[in-house]
Structure prediction request, 349 residues.
Amino acid sequence: MMNALLEVRDLIVEFKTRDGIVRVLDQISFDVNAGEILGIVGESGCGKSMTALSLMGLVPTPPGNIAGGRIAMQDQNLLDLDQEQLRHIRGSEISMIFQEPMSSLNPVFTVGEQIAEALRLHEKISSKEAMDRAIDMLQAVDIPEPESRSKAYPHQLSGGMRQRVMIAIGLACRPKLLIADEPTTALDATVQAQIFDLLKNLQKDMDTAIILITHDMGAIAELADRVAVMYAGRIVEQGSVVNVLMEPKHPYTKGLIDCVPHLETNPSTERKRLTEIPGVVPALDKLNQGCAFAPRCAQALSHCNDIKPQLDSVDNAVNIELDHADKNQELVACHLYGTTGNESQGVAG
Ligand code: SF4
Prediction:
């Protein structure tokens, strides 16, 4: 069996606060295969961005601390590497693009210089060669007149163009994995669709795996192959996008889907009115012992507040005929599906 490109197992991240140790990631496990797009979805404060920072070796330490688990990129545990080795991996093997390009791009250098710099950090090439390749990358991300645009400063470009430049920097060294953290949040719907198309095409052309981090189930439907739904620092549902969107299991996943306008779920059911998930994500230092979603869950059972449900496979996860669906990849952490209080989070992939 082929090994995954990235294997995350039982990852625990804790932060030291004045009130004690707070666990922000609680036994997160997932795989990313070469060339696939995994979506990680959840509201703000669910742990999505902290997962990305952990993969990049960028958890601020202290006060943060990776307290357990394993992050293996092609069988190499990134948690065993020192800062110098991690710097080398960042950009060449794993790269990340952020939601607001203006805060990531340097205002005093042209965009061509910034892409060329990213290349020269990882490859022994001349300035001229780096700039030629920077212009090629601008062309690859569909920026018109790439040669003249390479001489532009970030403030001279539109928001959509700046995000394209960030994607060009992220992909310049052809990393095996690109992490895109809310890459289209600041953009309007038309530009958002263009950026999604661009990411999809580049992923196919370069065979780059992508982790898409978003609060928006609509973005997951557009772009991802598989999805992990996060709530309060844990993964609560994981599976193929088709299965999770058509037959969501966890009440939180259903709530996220119901928040999205025009998102088709099961076509056999009438389209429902948009609803909001009542309540807010709980503070991580005030969690109950059981299911963190219980205070917001309309289907909570009597023991939900006290017993933490395990992320486990759902035997009857697929009620629809899907050629490419794999029942073994459908996981959910919810007592409605008979999962128990076992501590392990399990894994799909
Ligand atoms: Fe709701 Fe209980 Fe399932 Fe949590 S475990 S999502 S509270 S039914």
Summary: Residues 250-251, 291, 293-294, 297, 299-301, 304, 309, 334-336 surround iron/sulfur cluster (CB under 6 Å). The radius of gyration is 21 Å. Residues 189-206 form the longest helix (18 residues).
